[in-house]
Write a structure and sequence with these properties.
206 residues; alpha/beta; 2 domains; 8 helices
Amino acid sequence: MSFLEFPSKLLENAVNEFSKLPGIGKKTALRMVLHLLKQETEDVSNFGNSIIKLKNEIKFCKNCHNISDNDVCEICNDIKRDKSIVCVVENIKDVMTIEQTGQYRGVYHVLGGIISPMDGVGPNDLNIVSLEEKASSGKLFEIIFALSTTMEGDTTNFYIYKKLKNTKLIFTTIARGISFGDELEYTDELTLGRSIINRVSFDAGV
């Protein structure tokens, strides 16, 4: 069947919306929609309402910019976490990936992206000012760079380092045994956990 020949406009609209999701083509979207049609009305309503509720009520932690149900996320609120160590990551997925290793007990700072002139993303588009404020607070001891090992990631690391190097903080980077260009979410937990424990001085790479 051609995707221009849907038997229902409602079906076509639903498939078009699902196909907007990353990695979801029209065929996969159609399977998802047809699956939902087989479910109980209550289950489909719960599915839809959970997405709407997420969009309307999710918050971003005022300390680290991680997603949260409250103004301050659970990690920042945890009295057992070492607030003097901040791990700088690109996005929320990276926080989740590192947390799964169980090897890190500091806190995070989510940039919300990396510097990428080709994509029109500059320093002002990222959460860098709030990181500068943390660095100048006198409460930090170490900043860990945990961005992807790409040209954009390295550029972002270097930019932040240049902005903060006069704060006399210790700057480190995770010692990943992965190939150039890999991202945290594609690194196995054991390798990533070890790379956090065995992190190295960032200054040596500058």
